[in-house]
């Protein structure tokens, strides 16, 4: 069941927030896009002084049957090996989560590996990887629905009012490119990038494979049909988590290309999801700027990242904290006794 996500439009609160921002001891608009961020956070959380509580950084992991077609520079085993690296604290996102005090959990949505239960790992495996999308749907309709429901349930159990999205899965840039191409009607070549570091010949091979997959699933035109056709379990579970976070009026911090694909599907189902989203960064992955354009998103930072994991979301996190603190703590002209512009 896809929940209805109401719009956050609140002209009175928006006006109050803008007045509060404009009254700070600075020229109008001097904090640039940080002011836009303040306004967005205030509207999401329904407050003139929004507070970010217990941020949850969730990395959803899954394997893709299409990876066997040579669409990645790395073998599928890297998916489970990187999950172990996250849990051991050795990945970039692990370091950033420690630095910024973010609760990090890794969700096994469908990795082709059996993990030993431990702290920080949520085992919600739908199956050990999706099917080869060139042979048939990556997921059945039931598997897709189960993954979305699992994402909703997992998010609902998490504390706090912020979800930072991350992902891991060899082959998942292919799934994201396929979703972008189908749902936006874009050429697959424009949506397909080097992923884990493909050379020119490998990139051409990947593009050719993805073009065949699109042709194979020409009937998969709706968001849910496309999601089931192309995968993956981690993307479907993120769709559920995004829908639930939006329903609960949490701030959703969106990482890069693959997380963007999950948000694209969620927004096609419930457009008001986008009112709850903060887009962390612009990735170097070829299709990401097209994804951001499709979502009407302006990312906070552009550092040439293409790692995934939620690393961009974690790097952007201090900007959200700064926006809230300025709203709450920065003096106004009146309180500071500072003369305003004549």
Inertia-based shape: globular
Q: Are there runs of 5+ residues with pLDDT below 50, and where?
A: none
Q: Quick check: average pLDDT?
A: 97
Please tell me how large the radius of gyration is: 20 Å
Briefly note the structural class of the backbone.
Answer: alpha/beta
Discrete helix count: 14
User: What about the largest sheet?
Assistant: 6 strands, parallel
Structure description:
Helices cover 48% and strands 9% of the residues. The chain has 342 residues and is an alpha/beta fold. It has a six-stranded parallel beta sheet with strand order 3-2-1-4-5-6, sandwiched between helices. α1 packs antiparallel against α2, α6 (172-184) packs antiparallel against α9 and α11 (257-269) packs parallel to α12 (288-295). It is globular, with a radius of gyration of 20 Å. The mean pLDDT is 97.
């Amino acid at each position: 069941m896809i929940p209805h996500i109401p719009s956050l439009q609140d002209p009175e609160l928006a006006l109050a927030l803008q007045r509060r921002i404009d009254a700070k001891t600075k020229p109008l608009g001097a904090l640039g896009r940080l002011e836009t961020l303040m306004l967005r956070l205030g509207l999401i959380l329904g407050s003139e002084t929004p507070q970010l509580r217990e941020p949850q950084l969730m990395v959803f992991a899954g394997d893709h049957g299409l990876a066997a077609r040579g669409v990645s520079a790395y073998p599928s085993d890297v998916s489970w090996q990187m999950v172990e690296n996250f849990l051991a604290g050795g990945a970039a996102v692990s370091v950033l989560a420690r630095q910024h005090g973010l609760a990090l959990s890794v969700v096994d949505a469908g990795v082709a590996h059996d993990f030993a239960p431990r702290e920080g790992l949520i085992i919600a495996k739908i199956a050990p990887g999706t099917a080869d999308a060139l042979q048939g749907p990556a997921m059945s309709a039931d598997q897709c629905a189960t993954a979305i429901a699992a994402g909703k349930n997992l998010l609902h159990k998490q504390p706090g009012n912020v979800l930072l999205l991350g992902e891991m899965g060899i082959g998942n840039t292919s799934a994201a490119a396929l979703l972008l191409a189908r749902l936006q009607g874009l050429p697959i070549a424009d949506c397909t990038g080097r992923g884990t570091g493909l050379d020119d010949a490998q990139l051409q091979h990947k593009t050719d494979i993805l073009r065949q997959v699109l042709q194979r699933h020409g009937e998969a035109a709706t968001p849910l049909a496309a999601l089931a056709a192309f995968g993956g379990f981690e993307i479907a579970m993120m769709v559920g988590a995004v829908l639930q976070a939006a329903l609960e009026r949490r701030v959703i911090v969106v990482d890069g290309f693959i997380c963007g694909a999950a948000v694209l599907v969620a927004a096609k189902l419930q457009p008001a999801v986008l009112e709850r989203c903060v887009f962390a960064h612009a990735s170097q992955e070829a299709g990401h700027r097209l994804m951001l354009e499709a979502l009407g998103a302006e990312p906070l930072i552009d550092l040439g990242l293409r790692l995934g994991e939620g690393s961009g979301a974690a790097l952007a996190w201090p900007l959200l904290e700064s926006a809230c603190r300025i709203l709450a703590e920065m003096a106004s002209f009146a309180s500071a006794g500072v003369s305003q512009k004549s």
